[in-house]
Amino acid sequence: MRVAALYDVHGNLPALEAALEDVDRADVDEIVVGGDVLWGPFQVECVARLRAVGATFLRGNCERNVLRPESDTDRWCSARLDDETRALVAGWPLTVARELDGLGAVVFCHATPSDDEGIVTRVSPDEAVRAALAGVDADVVVCGHTHVQFDRTPPGAPRLVNAGSVGLPYEGRPGAHWALLVDDVEHRRTAYDVDRALAELEATGFPPFADLFPGALRGRTTADEATAHFESQRGA
Length: 236
Ligand SMILES: [Mn+2]
What we know:
single chain, alpha/beta, Purple Acid Phosphatase, chain A, domain 2, five-stranded mixed sheet, 9 helices, 10 strands, 36% helix, globular, binds manganese (II) ion
C-alpha cells in the first residue's frame, strides 16, 4: 500500500492542483487528506477536487471550527458550504490507520491522535512527544497542523512525521509541501506559480488573505520562526 499525505491545504486550490499532478506521477494507492482543507479561500472547491480523485479525509481543528463557526472568518467559510459537503465533513474521522509497505502500522491524524490542536514540533522535547503519542499503537504517526515538515523518532515513541502544508507552508520557501509514503517517508515540495495563485486566492475575498497567504506562499516565514512560535504555544 502506497500513500500520498496531503495536509493543511487551507483552500489553496492552485497549490493542490500542482501537488495532485505530482501525486499522479507517484502512482499511489490512496491519498490521505490530513485536515484543515476547509479554512481558506477555495475550500469547497478543494474538497470537490479531492473527492473527485477518491481521497480519504481526516478532520482537523479548522473543520471543527467551520462547522460551528465562532469567528468572522469561520462564518465566511461556513457560509460557502453546501449541505452535502457539510454532512460529509461532519462524518470525517479524526484518525485513519493503514498498514503501509516498508513502514508498518501508520496512524494519520491532524495534530496528535488525541487532540486536533495538540502541538508537537521538530524541537519539542522527547518527553513531550512521548506524552503526545502515549498509548498510540503504531510504528509511524503522520501529523500536520504546524505547517512545517519534520521526521523524528524519540526513544520510546513511534516515528513522528509532519507531512507539511500543501496550501499554507511555513518553510521559508515557496511550493506545495506534502509527504509520499512509499517504502519510506519522502518529504516532497511541488513548485507552482505563486504570483498567479495569490491573485486567484485574493479574488475570493477570504478575509485574512493578506495577513496569511502572501508571506507564507512567497516563503517569507521560515520553518525556524514558525517552529519557535508553535513551541511558545505548546501546552498553553
Ligand atoms: Mn492548518
